[in-house]
Amino acid sequence: MKKRNDMLKIIGMISMVADHVGVQFFSENPAILYYALRIFGRLAFPIFAYLLAMGFQRTRDWKKYAMRLGVFALITQIPFQIFAGHLNVLFTFLVGIFFLKAYEKQEPLGMLAAILIAEFLRMDYAGYGLLIIFIFYRFGEEKQKSFFYIFGLTALYGTLSVLSLGSFEWVVMIQLACVLALPVIWHEFHWRIQLPKWTGYAFYPAHIAILLGIQAWIDKM
Fold first, then answer.
1. Judging by beta carbons within 10 Å of its beta carbon (0-12, 13-18, 19+), is residue 63 exposed, middle or buried?
2. Most exposed among 1, 24, 55, 71, judged by the fewest C-beta atoms under 10 Å?
């Protein structure tokens, strides 16, 4: 299972880099290239949301799990603040752990509080992201139910995005990502690669810092 999950991590990391490269370097270039990178990049969140949900199910100490996420969320925020100017997705995953714990303890007010915090602090994916994590936690290997709930939630989220942004682009990027990410998540990979334990955590702030460095170098040319 770990080696399969590590393959998902690799795909998620590649997808994340593509997304951030599109944002950083191709936002003013021909739309087809920008949207291709962004659409492929949208695979990352569902993949990592699934891995978080499965990790929460298996962990022996959820507090250590949350602490590890919190530490790397703070480390990542240093370059990410320059890159995007808002809280990075690790904060969403951190709140997601508390959301799942509140569900386990049958505390609906705790779940609601987690959603309100994510929305108020304008975290990446916010309440939508927490619900995606929850769907994977509750129905992760039940393919039909997972697809139905994620597609429905994403369609609703996309509709709200259109109403708030006045643009169709987010519906396309987010909805396609969810549809395409699910077969990847459930695929049985023949290649089994094992990553060092901290690779996924360290990669996030490192690749953001590298992209910022490349941008600074380009600006000086």
1. exposed
2. 1
